[in-house]
Amino acid sequence: MTQPICYLNGKYVSFDQACLPLNDLGIVRGYGIFDFLRTYNGVPFKLTEHIQRLQNSAKLIGLSLPWSSAEIEEITQNTLTHNHLAEANIRIVVTGGASADFITPLGQPSLMVIVTPVSEYPQEYYEQGIKVITVPIERFIPKAKSLNYISAIGALQQAKQTNAVEALYVNSQGDVLEGTTTNFFVFRGSQLLTPKEGILNGITRDVILELAKDRFEIVEQSIAYSQLNHCDEAFITSSTKEIMPVVQIDELHISQGKPGENTQTLMDLFQNYAKS
Ligand SMILES: Cc1ncc(COP(=O)(O)O)c(C=O)c1O
């Protein structure tokens, strides 16, 4: 099988030949950050924004990046070119780099860019909507896309046991924040609500807010779990899932168990925007 070509610390190498030193702080301490995006028509979608978020994540965990935005952009484009994929998922990862004592950064982080084919979710998720569960978890440094997805992995396993597709984090105040890898939105009539604090600023979320602003009243505020029964529609967003309608949260059924009209409008707008 042909191995994908990835970028690692200055070289474009076959995926099975890429090696990190075992004392890299990403491996032994989970110290690192990443970003994730996809292409539409072969072009990385919102690459500049994803690189900006990567840089912000690095800042938030105290990791200084020796590469400029333009350098990261070029490396990403080159990795893409090496792989000849119709559409690609792109993962840009920065780890703390090798450390002599396994805890002190030496100021030489590792950079890798991994490109894989886009895999689509089942069409029925979009046509019929999905079930999600909630879990009482708050992410550490939520505005950073750090390498720590321990809670996410556990919560997703839990979701799968009840045929749910995503798990939403609920904080100690009882507010629904976001999913393990998605942002969360609800409609109350024509009011579109989404949390602003305690979440990762999704790039898809930003696009949705921009597309929605002339059609709906946007309210960026916390969403109480106890108020979910007053919602007419709900959906989650991410670079891979785009807009996925939610028709069940735990035992609560939303919008008569089928995707709502306003959500459908946003799904159409998003498809037109991303693919144009
Ligand atoms: C915790 C979390 N929230 C939200 C998102 C959605 O972000 P984006 O729309 O940029 O993919 C992600 C993406 O993986 C995520 O990990």
Layout of helices and strands, plus pairs?
Blueprint (H helix, E strand, L loop, with lengths): L4 E4 L2 E4 L10 H4 L3 E9 L2 E2 L2 H14 L8 H15 L4 E8 L14 E8 L5 H6 L1 E6 L14 H12 L4 E5 L4 E5 L3 E6 L2 E4 L8 H10 L4 E4 L2 E2 L8 E6 L3 E8 L2 E2 L7 H15 L1
Parallel strand pairs: 7-8, 7-15, 11-12
Antiparallel strand pairs: 1-2, 1-6, 3-4, 3-5, 5-6, 8-9, 9-13, 10-11, 10-14, 14-15, 15-16
The chain binds pyridoxal-5'-phosphate (PLP).
The site of pyridoxal-5'-phosphate has 13 residues, from helix 6 and strand 14.
Pfam families: Aminotran_4 (PF01063)
Family: Belongs to the class-IV pyridoxal-phosphate-dependent aminotransferase family.
Organism: Allocoleopsis franciscana PCC 7113
Class from secondary-structure proportions: alpha+beta
The CATH homologous superfamily of the largest domain: D-amino Acid Aminotransferase, subunit A, domain 2
Helix tally equals 7
CATH architecture of the largest domain: Alpha-Beta Barrel
Strand content: 25-35%
Q: What are the bound molecules?
A: pyridoxal-5'-phosphate
Describe the structure.
Its cofactor is pyridoxal 5'-phosphate. Pfam families: Aminotran_4. GO terms for molecular function: lyase activity; transaminase activity. By secondary structure, the protein is α+β, with helices and mostly antiparallel strands. It has two domains: 5-117, Aminotransferase class 4, branched-chain amino acid transferase, N-terminal domain (D-amino Acid Aminotransferase, Chain A, domain 1, 2-Layer Sandwich); 123-275, D-amino Acid Aminotransferase, subunit A, domain 2 (D-amino Acid Aminotransferase, Chain A, domain 2, Alpha-Beta Barrel), CATH 3.20.10.10. It is 28% helix and 30% strand. The protein contains seven helices and 16 strands. It has helices at residues 25-28, 47-60, 69-83, 123-128, 150-161, 203-212, 261-275; strands at residues 5-8, 11-14, 32-40, 43-44, 88-95, 110-117, 130-135, 166-170, 175-179, 183-188, 191-194, 217-220, 223-224, 233-238, 242-249, 252-253. The strands form two sheets. Strands 7, 8, 9, 10, 11, 12, 13, 14, 15 and 16 form a ten-stranded mixed beta sheet that branches. The longest helix is centred in the N-terminal third of the chain and has 15 residues, at 69-83. The structure holds pyridoxal-5'-phosphate. Pyridoxal-5'-phosphate (PLP) binds at residues 36, 178, 181-183, 200, 202-205, 237-239.
